[in-house]
Design goal:
about 65% helix; mainly alpha
Length: about 170
């Protein structure tokens, strides 16, 4: 069983992404194995109770700085500046990661469908060959085996040459 300290960062990271937030914070007595006091796991910040105040103060300052940046650049009218901001501030990165993950899932599904289709195709080829080899050719050979019992009119239609089996 995985310890609780390794499960919640993934859960919160998913919630952070779903909420389109920049990061998430959890204060807990149980931290991931590689974090002492405070640290970051992906987009999730984790800390123990002793370090909660310091982490909150640092993150508060970061949020204020981002807000000031956004407010200072709100008056930009040029499309180029807006596009640059979109790429530089992480909006593009979050959307790209979401698309990349969806494409990876799609490719995995397509690969699975292709494998399944190829297996089905081989089964159907085998059944077709069985029908041709054992069924149709068998009927023709049975009729040839009857040789003398074929009425003269039917014999005339078959002809005297070699019999062509259907392919």
């Amino acid at each position: 069983m995985a310890d609780a300290g390794s499960q919640w960062p993934r859960k919160l990271a998913g919630e952070v992404g779903a909420a389109e937030a920049r990061f998430g914070v959890i204060v807990s007595e149980i931290l991931p194995a590689d974090i002492e006091g405070s640290g970051q796991v992906g987009t999730v910040w984790a800390c123990d109770y002793e370090h909660a105040w310091h982490l909150a103060a640092g993150l508060r300052q970061a949020i204020i700085a981002v807000h000031r940046y956004v407010a200072a650049n709100a008056a930009r009218a040029g499309i180029a500046e807006k596009v640059y901001d979109y790429f530089a501030t992480g909006g593009f990165e979050a959307r790209y990661k979401t698309m990349e993950q969806a494409i990876d899932r799609l490719i995995a599904e397509l690969d699975q469908d292709q494998r399944t289709s190829m297996q089905r195709w081989k089964r159907l080829e085998k059944i077709t060959a069985e029908i041709r080899d054992r069924g149709l050719q068998g009927i023709v050979l049975d009729v040839i085996g009857l040789g003398g019992e074929i009425p003269p009119a039917a014999r005339a239609e078959i002809g005297d040459g070699p019999l062509e089996l259907p392919v």
